[in-house]
Amino acid sequence: REAAELDPILASISMEPAPDPKKYRNNVRFYTQEKKLMQHTMLTHENFEVRECFVVSDKTWESATNWKWKLPASISEIEIRENEKGEQMCIVSGTNRDQVPLHPAESLYFYDTAKKTYTHVAGSKTLTHHLEISGRHFDFDIGPDSFFQVHTAMAEILYRHISKVVPQTGTLHDLYAGTGTIGIVLAKLYPKLKVTSVEINA
Fold it and tell me: Which positions ≥6 away from 76 have C-beta within 8 Å?
């Protein structure tokens, strides 16, 4: 579209800053190499050691740093998810399920990188995330392969803004829906709105 056509649309979009610029992520993944936590750059994919991480909670970082000393060479990656109560789901990826050490997380999974399958090891099979939107409470049980917004507070803000601009009746198609959280929220907020969520990977 021409810039002039976009002006009214852009003017209607409200901008709201993130409430938690630090320690906001409820999900983090590290590669493990010689008892070190690693990441790689976006463009060159060069590996570098992570010695501090300001975007996750202290509990998540503590879990990751404690675990790196216990992981055998067959484990190549660890992922830690944390909900609003501080409960954690840990997912370790590698080639040998038998070498997965136990972890005091509420949920523990092993991902077989060769078979591309998840195996539940211990604890709960899901992690419950809680959202509060427009005075309503929503709980989502998330599995090891489920996508969920990595910034819970911003998800609440985003969903609240979306709920203000969609029709409250009629039909709404939620395309590229992921786990369908937006569609579920809108359907609960507006019972007269027929919501169809579409996701090829569902």
Answer: 31, 32, 93, 94, 95, 113
